[in-house]
Amino acid sequence: MVLTFVGVSYLAIKGSEMQVIKTEIEISAPPSKVWGILTDINHWQEWSPIINASSGEASIGSKLSMTMIGKEEGKDGPKYSPIIEELNEPHYFRWRAHMLAGFIFTNDKVFELEETESGTRLTHTETFKGLLAPIFCGQMDKGVPPMLNAMNKALKELAELKGAAL
């Protein structure tokens, strides 16, 4: 009983801390073009190598439907329904997803677009918080950055390929 209390107390304290994973990429396209691709959520599965299915409208309060890739090729991975909490066209896009309840596990995904001389700097960040976050911390440190970088690279290739039109 005491060990259970100590364990839950530890998770509650550690889970209140955010784990932040941040990636960046330079894209030779204007922020408006990158923004147009990012906010066309219904087509993410067509270009993102980490998404098997996606749907939803890019508006504050909108509930999205996301299905990640599975570990086995052609199989679906985790499914979740984030809610868009912030949009500041064409610079900032954030959603939040909950597992069970917010205190159990919360994931925020943030896309920040900054105009540069050569186009756009994309900062793609995911934050994790909640009772289960400390348990999965090591797995997320290893698994999440390659997924974010793969999505960033695919977004870069699409934005640079499309030329001036969207």
Task: Describe it.
The protein has 166 residues and is of the alpha+beta class. It has four helices and eight strands; from the N terminus they run H-E-H-H-E-E-E-E-E-E-E-H. The longest helix has 29 residues, at 133-161. Mean pLDDT is 86; it is low at 2-15.
Write out the strand line-up for the largest beta sheet, numbering strands in chain order.
Answer: 1-8-7-6-5
CATH class: Alpha Beta
Enumerate the spans where pLDDT stays under 50 for 5 or more consecutive residues: 2-15
CATH architecture tag: 2-Layer Sandwich
Shape: globular
Look at the helices and sheets and give the structural class. alpha+beta
First and last CA, distance: 60 Å
Largest sheet: 5 strands, antiparallel
Instruction: Estimate percent helicity.
Output: 25-40%
The CATH topology is: Alpha-D-Glucose-1,6-Bisphosphate, Chain A, domain 4
What is the residue-mean pLDDT, rounded to a whole number? 86
Estimate nothing, just give the exact number of structural domains: 1
Number of helices: 4
Q: Identify the CATH homologous superfamily.
A: START domain
Summary tags:
4 helices; 8 strands; alpha+beta; five-stranded antiparallel beta sheet; disordered N terminus; Alpha-D-Glucose-1,6-Bisphosphate, Chain A, domain 4; three-stranded antiparallel beta sheet; 166 residues
